[in-house]
Amino acid sequence: MSLVLPREEEVENMFSRILSSDQYCERLMDAFYDHLCDDKRTTDPDPHHFAEVLLGAYKNGDVSALLLELFNRSMFDLLKETYLIPKRFHGKNGENPVLLTDVDGNLLNDKADLVSRHEYKKFHEIYQAHHAAPRSKLYLADAYDLVRYYTSGMDICEKAENRERGILILYALPDTKKLGLTEAQAYDVIWSTFHDIQEEAYSAIVYYGQETGIRSGKSFDELGVLLPIHQFENKMLQHLSVIDGLVLSCREEMIKTAGSDSLDL
């Protein structure tokens, strides 16, 4: 069985940007050594399984396969963990993030028992007070780290860990495929906005998906920013206002990059 994990080629173009920054390189190095030195890190109890993964990773030249065995994280999981690339958004019905409210700010029936009165009250206050940017909506949502690991049969399984409950602001972006942008080009524009958002709110969790939204039969890209309630409770509105401006600039940059003077969403 091949141990080669799917490559995220659209974000590999960002490697040169990471390497050009001592700060980004240090962040990645710190995360690597933190995992390596973690006393609670789970080690493989089966020497044969470990050898099979190690030799398979060497044979295939697959760094992600080796990292997955050592830390339960692929190369791109590590980059996402260190806030160097955005997490992939899979749509409103995806498993990460998980939406807890509907588009009108009401708790979903099957999620109501999971949300405390304080959390929903705080969300509703923000929902009412925030003047949303065009083509954006607020949701209460749970974000997760998706941790992958090898089974004894060398299959790859995935589980969600480290839940963060927060307010997710989800923006509609241009349909970059319709504008003629490749996924790599779209990610290149998103990367700049992503890091502007991190400077405003370092621990914000940023998602991006190409053609994950549908309206009136037309698809569009989406960018989501989740601000954990326990970290941003007192300055939520301030951060949301700044992030609105950054994402509106991102929309304009996408159109400019595509050489388009108009947007049809």
Secondary structure elements and their pairing?
Blueprint: H1 9-12, H2 15-19, H3 22-36, H4 47-60, H5 63-71, H6 75-81, E1 87-88, E2 98-99, H7 117-129, E3 136-150, E4 156-173, H8 183-200, E5 205-215, E6 218-228, H9 229-232, H10 236-258
Helix pairs in contact: 4-5, 8-10
Give the end-to-end Cα distance, rounded to a whole number of Å. 43 Å
Low-confidence stretches: 260-265
- What general outline do the C-alpha atoms trace? globular
Number of strands: 6
Helix/strand structural class: alpha+beta
The largest sheet is:
6 strands, mixed
- What share of the residues lie within helices? 40-55%
| Spatial sequence of strands, sheet with the most strands | 1-5-6-4-3-2
The number of helical segments is: 10
Following the backbone from N to C, one meets helices and strands in this order, namely: HHHHHHEEHEEHEEHH
Radius of gyration: 20 Å
In round numbers, the mean pLDDT is: 85
Share of β-strand residues: 15-25%
Kindly describe this structure:
The protein is an alpha+beta fold and 265 residues long. The protein contains ten helices and six strands; from the N terminus they run ααααααββαββαββαα. It has a six-stranded mixed beta sheet.
